[in-house]
Amino acid sequence: MANSIFSPACNNFVGLNNNWKRVIPMTCNNMSLPRVLTTRLSATSRNVFKWANSEDSDMSTMEASLSLTPDFILPVERRPNLAEVSKLGDNVPIIDMGTGDADGLVEEIARACEMYGLFLIKNHGVPQELCESMLAGVTDLFHLPPKVKALLVSDDPTKDVRICNHYRKAEEKGDSKAKRFSMWSEVFKHPWHPSDQSFADLLPSDPPNYRKIVTTYAKEIGILMSRLFNLMSQGLGLEGDVLQNRLGKNPLCRVQANYYPPCSNPDLTLGLGVHTDRDALTVVLPTPNVEGLQIMKDDRWMIVDPVPNALVVNIGDQLQVLSNGKYKSVLHRVVTNECQSRVSLAMFYGPDKDALIGPIENLIDDQHPQVYRNYYFSEFLEVYRKQEGKNRKIKEFFEI
Ligand SMILES: O=C(O)CCC(=O)C(=O)O
Ligand SMILES: [Fe+2]
């Protein structure tokens, strides 16, 4: 912990006009500059995070005391090499969705999808208060006592609602006994739907307001995603409704809430391993002001600077395939830091299991030969599940 500045200020909440005002510490290695952010946080947000599988007898009161046990320590070649990640120069595009220039917006989004595969959006239409309540709700969930969270813990990927730790296997060829490395995060997964709120019945009743917040948020994200699909479709020179229609009438929509507690040595582990998102489109709501997300750009890791009130938009594998490789499903990872926890809520929108996915015919010609064969999304999911714990190469499996 040589350079750690973990202090009580790292997680200090004070009451202010019914809001909780969170005081961000003045300095933190590799972190953005200090800011004070006012977030509506409910009482349990002031509790400390403990892993769902930790002992109830664990009396620690500081998140930074979570121990970096050997199962979290990655083999040398898989470590994040933080000293080599440059902060200089490039950042991902920050796109103003509130602009009146419709053609300009289509162009900007298409360029971001082709060059980066990930971008930030501001003036996106999802109310700020709702985003804050959503993050507070997620935080409350991860701050529940271990014995409550344990009821949701499962390693079974077919279970719709569950808490788990992601892991990677040491060996690429992966026999079942290959050593597993846990990621420094806990994740909560469940379905969502833009218009049908019945998914809420599957969710835990604790924290009490989680169901209500997430259904309201899901509706907003559904509207935003339809708008994004439309703009992305136009950006490919297609009618606005083509992309979303290709994904089918019963899209597979999943939520993944991620909690990354502070870590005593961020050089030895990752919050989430290197991956691309398997679905079509992801919208991520991250803790404002805390770095963590990085993308691979020109063979180097690049920090995605957090921007207050912005959402992160991420192209998934299915959009890369539908666009015949024009839009990029970018490799990304999440790194940890020594003094602040970080939360993010990823909303994934994927095809109907029965949707036939493949490069859209208008995007194939002599200059742009077909890159992927057609497949049903259920086939893709099968290949995906077989690669559990590995550095996944799923869309590559369908390359021609
Ligand atoms: O935490 C983040 O910013 C990104 C999360 C992510 O990549 C994911 O959930 O797939
Ligand atoms: Fe991701």
Automatic annotation (TrEMBL):
Give the matching Pfam families. 2OG-FeII_Oxy, DIOX_N
Q: Where are the transmembrane segments?
A: none
- What Gene Ontology molecular-function terms does this entry list? metal ion binding; oxidoreductase activity
Question: Per the database record, which ranges form the Fe2OG dioxygenase domain?
Answer: 251-351
Q: Which UniProt keywords apply?
A: Iron, Metal-binding, Oxidoreductase
InterPro entries of this UniProt entry? DIOX_N, IPNS-like_FE2OG_OXY, IPNS-like_sf, Oxoglu/Fe-dep_dioxygenase_dom, Plant_2OG-oxidoreductases
Q: Does the keyword Cell membrane apply?
A: no
Taxonomy, superkingdom: Eukaryota
Family the UniProt entry places it in: Belongs to the iron/ascorbate-dependent oxidoreductase family.
Name of this chain's protein: Fe2OG dioxygenase domain-containing protein
Q: Which organism is it from?
A: Beta vulgaris subsp. vulgaris
Origin organism lineage: Eukaryota, Viridiplantae, Streptophyta, Embryophyta, Tracheophyta
